[in-house]
Amino acid sequence: MLTVTHVEKVFSGQKVLDDVNLTLSAGEVIHISGGNGSGKSTLLKIIADWLKPDAGTSVIDGHVELGALIENPGFIETETLKRNLLFLLSIRHQTKLETVLPLVSRFGLDIQNRASMKKYSIGMREKVGIIQAVMEDQQLILLDEPTRGLDEQSLTELVKLIAELRQQGKTIIIASHDQATPIAYTDRYVLERGELTRITD
């Protein structure tokens, strides 16, 4: 599903990613840990093709749809949750809002909330970011610090959701500084000094 081969990235003369290699198949849920500035978000952006590597390649199988929540989710700040979701769904025209409503309710959000997105808290914005990353049956899902600002109930729902997505054969990469996230991962990696290393028990 995903093959990252010898990827390197340099910013201002500093090598952020150094010969990074990663191969993932359907149904894998991996965790990438690392401190602030370790390159986690950069790697996800390269996988999502939002950023080009200076060397190496990142290839997603042609049939695979990508969903991503990387860094601070961006929205149409002056519009409501409903208008934002309708806009995102209109891009591909393959999913109706009605099919997304269970996800909205699951994370304790109100689709009829008339407040604009700029008034949403960090946790609320994070929930919407998670929803948009999975709501169109995406097969490869990238989540960058997805637990940021989540309350305990929403964290529980996120854990359940990821387990369900894995059962459906979805592949998920979660990047965070915290290794203690209560999610059943198939593999764990650490990104330090630009090098991605699999953690073995």
From TrEMBL:
Q: Which UniProt keywords apply?
A: ATP-binding, Nucleotide-binding, Transport
| Signal peptide, first to last residue | none
Q: What is this protein called?
A: ABC transporter ATP-binding protein
The record's section on PROSITE patterns has:
ABC_TRANSPORTER_2
Q: What is the lineage of its organism?
A: Bacteria, Bacillati, Bacillota, Bacilli, Lactobacillales
Species, as recorded: Schleiferilactobacillus perolens DSM 12744
Record Pfam families: ABC_tran
Q: Which GO terms describe its molecular function?
A: ATP binding; ATP hydrolysis activity
Q: Where is the ABC transporter domain?
A: 2-199
Look up the domain of life of the source: Bacteria
